[in-house]
Amino acid sequence: MPDEPTPDASNVELIELQEEMERSFLEYSLSVIIARALPDARDGLKPVHRRILYSMYDAGYRPDRPHVKCAKVVGDVMSRFHPHGDAAIYDALVRMAQDFSLLHPLIDGHGNFGSPDPSTGPAASRYTECRLAPIALELLAGIDEDTVDFVPNYDSQTVEPSVLPARFPNLLVNGSQGIAVGMATQIPSHNLGEVVDAIAYLIDHPEATVDELMRFVPGPDFPTGGIILGRDGIRDAYRTGRGSVKLRAVATIEEARSGYQIVVTEIPFQTSVEVIADKIRHLVEEKLLEGIRDMKNFSAGSETRFVIELKRDANPNVVLNNLYRLTPLQTSFPIQMLALVDGAPRTLNLLGLCQIYVDHQREVIRRRSEFRLGKARERLHIVEGLLSCIDQLDAVIATIRASEDRAAARAALMAEPFGFSELQANHILDMTLGRLTRLGREELEEEAATLRATIAELEAILADAQRLSAVVKDEMLAATAEYRQARRTRFEVDPGDFAAEDLIEDEPIVVLISRSGYIKAVPESSFKAQGRGGRGVVGARVKDEDEIAHVISSSMLSRLLVFSSRGRVYQLRGYELPKLERSARGTALVNLVPLADDERITSVMGTKDFPEDADLVFFTRNGMVKRTAMAEYARSRRDGIIAIDVRGDDELVSVVVATEEHDGVVFTKRGQVLRFPLAEVRRTGRATAGVRSIRRADGDWIVAGGLIEDGVEVLLVTSRGYGKRTPLDSFPVHHRGGAGIRGIGLTERKGELVAAAFVRPEDEVLIVSSQGQMIRVRIGDISNQGRYATGVKLISLQAEESVASVGVVPESGTDA
């Protein structure tokens, strides 16, 4: 066996492994960046997308022709331009046909092209069909007029365009996403009309700034709509090329028979109802999200309707905020505007992207004008030759007849005395006899005049940069006019950017709390003043066993101090309460404040500040009274602090504000009244029990307590809807701790005393029944009677009804 040949050492090149790995990886990286992952800044397309569109255009799969199988398109692209596998080509084709991926799809798909849910992909390419979308023709318009460079394909058997003419700014309009080696691009889609208007402005104002363009392009516009929160991230992205925007679903709270439900009609870009539902289901199972009873997806086609049904005691606003916080109902979209410029990746701001597109269009129009100019000059040369032929027709015919063959005839026409060029001579020899008529000559003369005008126009465009720019602008506006559409994504202020108080109008509201703990805020204008004795309107829909317990006039920006029977105080803001219609039931208060099982709300107070010279005066059911500086409650929290030390079976009844040394007064259910100087109650700390206000009889207890101010009268209301006004001088001052005097005559028909308030004649009073009926009565319409009088009817009640709560609306002025 002969010895194996020894390798020639002169043909072996020694190289370090690290150097070879670095070189190979660099070549791979450049290939991925340039040939696969990043779009060209001019037409906004990656090579695979450009090849698909050009292949379909070249094969004639246009909007006015029937759809063809996607498998056929994929095969053509793979065999001629993109030898990287059919799966990658089909995935790129599918994305260009999805209306939830592109704002303006470039391919008109027929069949199942998938859904936003990543688990349900498109059908196989052998089942789906496609053709170019009308707007795709605007990307390819003029490609046959030498507007762009063509380069050899992968096997040099044919050529492909290195970029498309792109008569609309596709990169900004449809966006792009891609991951290269060590870099990534994430360009959001934008409204076509807004981007085109911005570019038109840039053409007219070459010195325009990013901020000026942002007047036309306020932010991205996503195919799935939704809400963009805040503008800081948009400004960063447009000025630097990098930023992030918060996207939020469009969700509304609706009232249904079974309670409240959250209805989602638009979702953030690149998520799906199925993904959101799976996340919610997981959070509910892990006890991380409460208040959700069921979920139903009624979405169909391009319409989204995802219904989240809530439990009866759930606060819909709290649940919705938790959904935004914990689920893809609110997401962030990172912006990285990276694209290829002259074959190299560059991060561009809004101005840079627009300027590169304008420069590309100037080059496209310049090359197209040069191409058309050359064609027009060539045709004019031919037409002029044909006209000269007609002028010498007899001599030309004689010369042709005398020639032995076509070559001899052509040579004779090119020689003297004719002097035709070879091109003219060939056209003369090809000219039909019909062109020799007078009509034929007129047609040629008209064509020559038109060609001269066209040549003059094209030469003017090429000679004047401003005129060329005007052509770019006019053609861009004309090409995109029929594709403009309303913005899908709207803007809202990011709640994290501003304090809620800056965004909410301080409108008056009426806060209603039922005995079983349901709370709501209703616009004060929902209740019109009526004459006393009327039936009233439905102020709340309550259960049979429930009744309205508290009604207070407040405002959206006021702080609500909610005092419980156990002597704790919780703080809420008016805008945090569910703002509902007048007849709505409300939401469970336990969703807003952590009430204990044996704790109920006994007093609610609205205030916007905590003056240093003001005190809170507390009255309990067993007759205790306490006075504490109001400033000590400024730091009350949603989870509550101690307001008064309530002992034994006692309960807190009412809390009022004292700014001066007014007299205090307490009222019992049997109609006893005791007026005493507030100076007899010394100021103590929060966690104190207070002192005795009145010596009550067995079976009697305090129903109300308050402070007397100048110019007010006492309004007393019984459980059966009767009431009266009584002057203050009817109640003489006694020392604290006495038994009091009679304040109202009570009978079995008129019931027990349930409420007392201090009013002025111009005020109005809201009276709420145990069944939720509410009436708003002018104080001036209520009789002014003495201490022993039993009062007049204020509200008509059914046999099973009683007055549950009374609230004063001060100085309302006119009817609502």
Structural overview:
This protein is 29% helix and 25% strand. With 816 residues, it is α+β, with helices and mostly antiparallel strands. It is elongated and about 145 Å long. GO terms for molecular function: ATP binding; DNA binding; DNA negative supercoiling activity. Heterotetramer composed of ParC and ParE. It comes from Acidimicrobium ferrooxidans (strain DSM 10331 / JCM 15462 / NBRC 103882 / ICP).
Features:
single chain, 816 residues, alpha+beta, Topoisomerase II, domain 5, Gyrase A, domain 2, Topoisomerase, domain 3, 4 domains, five-stranded mixed beta sheet, four-stranded mixed beta sheet, 42 strands, elongated, disordered C terminus, Topo_IIA_A_a_sf, DNA-binding, EC 5.6.2.2, Topo_IIA-like_dom_sf, isomerase
In short:
It catalyses: ATP-dependent breakage, passage and rejoining of double-stranded DNA. Helix content is about 30%, strand content about 25%.
- Give the overall pLDDT as a whole number: 85
Q: How many individual β-strands? A: 42
CATH topology of the largest domain: Neuraminidase
**Oligomeric status:** single chain
Could you describe the largest sheet, including whether it forms a barrel? 5 strands, mixed
Structural class: alpha+beta
The 3D shape can be described as elongated
CATH class of the largest domain: Mainly Beta
Tell me the domain tally. 4
CATH homolog superfamily of the largest domain: DNA gyrase/topoisomerase IV, subunit A, C-terminal
Q: Proportion of β residues?
A: 25-35%
Distance between the termini: 115 Å
Computed CA radius of gyration, to the nearest angstrom: 42 Å
Instruction: Assign a percent range to the helix content.
Output: 25-40%
Number of helices in the DSSP assignment:
18
The CATH architecture designation of the largest domain is: 6 Propeller
| Weakly predicted, low-confidence segments | 535-546, 812-816
InterPro entries: GyrA/parC_rep, Gyrase/topoIV_suA_C, Topo_IIA-like_dom_sf, Topo_IIA_A/C_ab, Topo_IIA_A_a_sf, Topo_IIA_dom_A, Type_II_DNA_Topoisomerases
GO cellular component, one term: cytoplasm
GO molecular function, one term: ATP binding
Catalytic activity: ATP-dependent breakage, passage and rejoining of double-stranded DNA
